Amino acid sequence: MKKNSWLLIFNLIISLVLALLPRGFDSRIFGLVPAILVVYIMLPFISGVILILIQNRNKSYEYLPGLLIGACLNNAVILVVISISEYFGHTRLYRHFFDFYDLIGFYLPLVVISIAGGLIGLVIRGTLEQFKRHPDSKITLAFRKIFGSIFISIGALGGLVSVVVFLVLLFNPSSSWLKYIMVDFRIIDVIGFLNYYLLLISIFSIIATLLVFTTNLGLILLFPQKKYLNKKLSSRLIIYFFIFLAIFLLSSSYLNSEFEVKKAEMKADIQESHIDITDFKNIYISRFVEFDDIIIKQGENFDIAVKGSEYDRIGLDFEKTGDTLNIKRSELETYFNTDTWTVENRDILFRAGSKHLTIEITMPDVEKIENEGANIELENLEVDNIEIKLNNRFNSIKGNIKADSILKLDAKGGIINLSGSAKNLIINSGDCWIEMDKFIAEKATIDAINTSRLNVYVTDNMEVLSGKNSGIVNHYDELQ
Q: Are residues 276 and 208 in the same domain?
């Protein structure tokens, strides 16, 4: 009964930990394992295995009552946590009262998974009993050496890695490793010096306790005559484990709340600043600059004005390479990858929030604009030649351009809405929408594939190299 209670508490704590993650059961643990997989499959299955191993019976059928009762109780706890988490995880408008039949439909598979785990537990228990009855057999000795070595290796290697990571984070709270947990801020800046080290020590203590038990299991398998952890010491370690687990849960909850507070405070602080970079003719915009609006103007002097909140400036970086101005953000920003149709970096525990700034760039001349992320507005540009590249299906560019010679447009995606004029217009497009019926060109060369809409206004010769799956319309011809 006592062992069943510990298992019940263990399931309750693990379920609560997963429910308290920033994205709840939609989160991924360490960016790999879905939390819903842990709570819906792994936890019930492992509980079923443990429910068999903690019993001391002589016949196989004698294990079944304990398995069935334990499976019902443990999965009831898991179901309650999931239900409450889902209920309060939605706004009042979308909250629904619990439906009995839905709960039963969710509960029964959990019980079945636990029973399946119990059957595996019976196999393990039977194997262990055979080892006890024949401790000196070759098979038993081989299994002891193999699994003993594995558990000791896990304990030793895990301990070494844990100590190294702990020391690095202990003496360097600004470590780049922590960016994979919280992108926008330093954790120590969010919760303070004391709470940071309390959280760090609690995590290390939880891992260390588990590794001690793992190593002890390996030692017992290799050297069964000796006892390395007596009951008193084991009990103390278990108590310490739950104490540090409670500290970890409280610290994590505090971290989550302070994270939201700090973000709100920085969002309320609206500023305008100027970046001192000059002598560039080209502009490159990174894919991580996804939600920002960039306005490009012409003027005698260079100027880069950034308007928006202090929070929205996090990770923004300007640098000059040759005659190109590079506008970048952190590569850990959350963004939609149109090549794979997935949201990148969304599984970071405290992932980067959406950031929106207005960036006004004034420059005497513009030769090339390459955009992989932002929305661009061009204000009455007058140039000799200009090249525009769009590499993202969901970005856009609009405005007015007068090119004395050539406008070259290379668009792999996005929405283009331009007015103005050029002597020669070169378009290479795919998976985009082009509205240039108010852009007057004398000549045009068009190579379009999968361009659903391509409206132009060409007064002389228009050469179409390819128009596969594209709606090309010359509005000059339409008016004749």
A: no
How far apart CA 40 and CA 375 sit, in angstroms, is: 42
| Torsion-angle region of 237 (φ positive above 0: left; ψ -120 to 50: alpha; else: beta) | alpha
What are residue 335's DSSP bridge partners? 344
- CB–CB of 420/398 below 8 Å? no
User: Residue 360: its pLDDT value, please?
Assistant: 95
Is 406 in the same domain as 465?
Answer: yes
Q: In the listed set 267, 300, 333, which residue is the last one of a domain according to the structure?
A: 267
Which tokens hold the place of 383?
A: 């140039």
Six-digit token string for 45: 């299955």
Nearest to 30 by CA among 348, 344, 248, 251: 348
Q: pLDDT averaged over the chain? A: 84
Q: Which residue in this structure is represented by tokens 């278990």?
A: 238
* pLDDT tens-digit series, residues 111-141: 899 889 888 888 888 777 777 777 777 877 8
CB 395 within 8 A of CB 375: yes
Residues recorded for the chain: 480
- Environment class of 351 (CB within 10 Å of its CB; exposed 0-12, middle 13-18, buried 19+): buried
The H or E element spanning position 374 is none
Given a contact cutoff of 8 angstroms between Cβ atoms, the answer to whether 196 and 181 are in contact is no
What is the domain range of residue 261?
Answer: 2-267
- Residue 383 maps to which CATH number? 2.160.20.120
The identity of residue 9, as a single letter, is I
Residue type (1 letter), 453: R
d(CA 253, CA 195): 12
CA distance readout (Å), 31 to 27, 181, 335, 465 = 8, 10, 16, 45
Q: What does each C-alpha distance from 32 to 167, 332, 339, 459, 473 come to in angstroms?
A: 25, 16, 21, 56, 48
Would you state the structure tokens that stand for residue 391, as one six-digit string?
Answer: 């590499």
H/E element holding 413?
none
- Do 347 and 261 belong together in one domain? no
Do 345 and 243 belong to one domain? no
Looking at per-residue confidence, does 284 or 37 come out higher?
A: 284
Q: For residues 326 and 329, give the distance between their C-alpha atoms in angstroms, rounded to a whole number.
A: 10
Same domain, 277 and 260: no
Map tokens 């103390």 to a residue.
236
